[in-house]
Predict the 3D structure of the following.
Amino acid sequence: MIDPLIDDTSQHIAYDGTWTHADASQPWTGGDLNQTESYSRTAGDSATTAFRGTDIRVICPKGPHQGIAEITVDGGPPVRVDLHAGNKQYRQKVFQRTDLRDGEHTVTVRVTGDKNASATDAYVSFDAFEALEADLYEPTSGVDLSVNAGLTYPDLAWGNHTDPPPTTARIRLLP
Ligand SMILES: [Ca+2]
């Protein structure tokens, strides 16, 4: 199992611009993953990573000093995300894609310098990326449970066999 979390301190993240990297020595990082976050208020600054899988989530703290970020997957159309909140809220899933083709992708968080009228500043603070691997089976709209009639399963569980089953029944749990 690959750790799906790519923390903001990861060497796999390329930072462009004037980001500040805060760690546990700052009391206001207390709720961040690994008590670290990286932040910038300079328009155009960016943080990019490559990942493998079908799903990507961007985890950021929200707060009163936070502005608007622009998030891009595979160089596609940017999505603007407002990170402002009245009080600091840690580990917010501010962006998610679950429909990517299984394989290599890139995701970028960019500082816009913009903020909504209630925000006191335009900081973009970034905590972590979460990249999830594809399922063992082809994507479906429901959830598949594969049952091998040739074996007995004392504890039926997801993915607890590796041999192709000679006979399968598929049970679809509709969402
Ligand atoms: Ca972090």
Summary: Residues 69 and 111 are 5 Å apart (CA to CA). The pocket of calcium ion is lined by residues 7-8, 32-34, 36-37, 127-128 (CB under 6 Å).
